[in-house]
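Request:
You are asked to prepare a plain-text protein record giving the amino acid sequence and the backbone structure tokens, at your earliest convenience.
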Amino acid sequence: MRISRKKRPEKPLMAQHKRNKDLDYPQVLVIDETGKSLGVMDTAEAIRLTEERGLDLVEINAKSSPPAVRIIDYSEFKYQKEKEARKQRAHSHTSDIKGVRLSVRIGEHDLANKQEQSQKFLDRGDKVKIELILRGREHAKLDLAYEIIRKFIQRIDAIVPIRQEQEIQRQDHKLTAIVAKK
């Protein structure tokens, strides 16, 4: 299968607003930089007014009749909109399910590392799926496997308050449990 090497254009952070000469409406509703409505006027007259003030005429609402435009500094307006979009994107973290694999023969140091890793995932807002895979003769030590997962959950709970989303379940050669931060 051929891999496409074309660079896809990045999606803009915010919608593009028409400004000055790009406005193709016969009349517009003009709002000045203080937020006061100047009323409906011809687009050419509104552009002349903004050029006198050294600002830009930016489309705010194209769907209204007539379209609403504002007299503002476009670069400042664009900066504020991008800042809002970045802030919104930063707060829109969706929680994923991150996996941590244990074994019946896991050492104390490895268990501590897995605990730190789980704590980091939980602090970030993700859920943690704890898996313990049984191999060969380990199927005979099912009680030990359940105990390892229970102790691991208690160790995490001692540091980060958690709730158990899914109780310990057995699926063929695997024991799984899902925990999330309270």
